[in-house]
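Annex B. Sample input.
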Amino acid sequence: MASLKKNRTRLITLGVLAFMFFTAVQGMETKDWVITVLRGLSVGMVTFLVASGLSLIFGLMDVLNLAHGEMFMLGAYVGWTVFVRPDTFVDILTPILLLAVGFVLMPVWRALLGQLKWTSTAGQAWPWVGLAAALTILAFTFVRYPVTKWDPKVYSDSPITFSLALDQDNLVLPEPIPFDEIPPVVILLGTLVGGSLLAAAFVGFGLRRETGAVHTQFSKGPVVTAVILLAAALAALWGNDALTTALLDMGSSARFFLAMGVATIVGFVIGGVMETTMIRPLYARPMYQLMITLGISFIVIEVARAIWGRPEFTMPKAALFTGRGDGCPAQSVGDLLAHQCSTIILFDGRIRSYNEVFIILVGLIVLVAVWLLLQRTRIGMIIRAGVQDSEMVEALGINVRQVFTFVFALGVALASLGGVLAAPSIGLSTAMGGQFLLLALIALAIGGLTSFPGAAAGAILVGLLQQFIIKYGQIGINLPFLEEPFKPSPPLVPASGVLLMVIILLALPNGLFGRNE
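Annex B, continued. Sample output.
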């Protein structure tokens, strides 16, 4: 009874929302409201992938990552590259892996540099010297590595053309670019040395801020990982043509799933690097965190424009979701899988297999997986405890720094996965990150800033509301004292989410599932 009284406002709010949903459904035919609900869930699941990462990061670290939307956008572009231009992906593997070797060895550089006297002139100057040397070497070697790519300024050689070619099943990749007059060994060694110096410089900046004794022990794990990455880089170089051919031959469906995995991994790595090099030094300065993440977002946008171009373009759907002809549209899930139909009949209405089935399915899988991670694993227990009291967790001897890095990387990875999922549905543009970041922030405010279930609930509510507004913009709403049905205008679609957020925050200042601070 006490619990009911305590949560009375929340229960009333949820009841009102359920009543509004029931009322909205009554004005539609069965097939119309089913399709509308599925479209709302699809938008909600993509929004959830962005909002969930923000919720985890903010709940544990009190960091509002304003570059989160751009990580969503970057995931879409990386996924497109793997899916449409696997030759470029294979070419870039070797230099990226060589750079990663230096960053994997950061514990080794920390142990070696920890022997220096950081109060001395040499100790204070080393990070800047190492950074300058690293950038000089990489400017000479990394940028000279031959990568087969496109030219966004030439239409016939732009991402738009390659997307259309793949969609029409006549994709022809350009000839690979050979090494120039500089010997390959010089470029490879320079990239490896430059990446190591860059990582060592970042370690040096961190050591300058430490006032106590520097821990100089390290395990052999980073060394083993670095050896594996080095071997993988050389293997990718040696088997470049064979690997590119294998990716093309595997078919668009398998390559799309590979693109999802690569985009997620890239997001995880970028998130880890962002936290360790840029966010960690600013935990005591929240305003600086906002400024640096905002700056990162602008940098990522300009990098995307420089590499992929400014115009918007589409990402073709995999063959698994484009089937037409005999057996299509599918009448059942079995027919959908057997004929790989692009649509399926449900309640006499036709729904898209990718947008309204696959995206929702992936979103549910991620929701369950992250929930199990938080509720059934040790790292999840640490994260939940850290959300409640991070100082107590650190007092128990747990390395909160590593937990912070993992959570930040996981949040960015979820956003990147959302980007590659959304790309075939909404297309690619440098503005897509900002649009979904706004939706995610609205969803977080509705569900509760630090609540993972709240992120899911808020995202689904925003998605459903927008899709119902769009649908009623087509069929109209019969209102009293009006001769004709009222049809909401398109500007009401984004405004509806803000209006819902304001109403819920007036009733529940901490959101539907937020906790009192």
